[in-house]
Every structure is written in structure tokens, then in C-alpha cells.
Amino acid sequence: MSKPVDEEIRQLHNDVRRRQHYARGPQPIAETLSVLLARRGYAFVESAAERENAWGAVVGDTLARYSRIGSVRRGVVEVTVCNSAVLQELTFQKKQLLKKLVVALPDQKITDVRFRIGVVK
Questions:
Q1: Dihedral (C-alpha) 58, 64, 68, 73: value to the nearest 10 degrees?
Q2: What is the pLDDT of residues 84-116, one digit of tens each?
Q3: Which domains does the chain have, with CATH numbers?
Q4: pLDDT tens-digit profile of 22-68?
Q5: Across the beta sheet with 67-73, what order do the strands follow?
Q6: Would the N or C end of the chain have less CB density within 10 A of its end CB?
């Protein structure tokens, strides 16, 4: 064979190799379930209920009626309160509440609590 033909065959062979796609192996079931739970939001629902229960235990029934714990972002938990009197009372107790929340929710890695006035359902 001549040089141009050999060169062309070699280039075609390289192109075929580059375009080959290999099938992935089986994924562990834990990875698949983790992705599914994250997509459906089941983990968030469970952790929200866990936070609500912990918040009620930490602040007591009276203050729990007038406040609602929100999400945890970067270690900061947001608490919505119905009025400024409740906000002030919770602010006075902030250090104690933070210590109790860290113990009640160790997997959440809470470092701070922020209060804001809003609608409590």
C-alpha cells in the first residue's frame, strides 16, 4: 500500500477509537437510592419534621406555637416568629437555644440561629 492510503487508514482507525463509547458498569444501589431520594425531596421532608420536633422540645409548647423553625443553610438555622415580643424573648434565650439545638440536631451542624418576623402556620 502507498503512504497516503496507510496514513488515511491509520487516521480512520484513530477516529473510530476516539468515538467508541464504553458502557458503564452497574452502580451500587446506595448511590441510586441517594440520587432518587434527593430528586424527590424525601430527605428534606424527613429532616424538616425532625427539626420541627426538636424545636418544640427546645423552646417548649408556648413559644413553639408562635414560632416555626425553617431551613439550615451553612450552619445557620432560620426561625420565623409571629411578632416582635416573641422575637425579643427568643433573642434573649439565643445562646441556650443554640446549645440545645446543637444537642438535639447533631447531624444538622448548626452554628447560629437567626430570627425574623413572618407568618407562622
A1: -10
A2: 999 999 999 999 999 999 999 988 889 999 999
A3: 47-121 (3.30.300.180)
A4: 777 788 888 888 777 777 666 666 678 889 999 999 999 999 999 99
A5: 67-73, 76-81, 112-117
A6: C
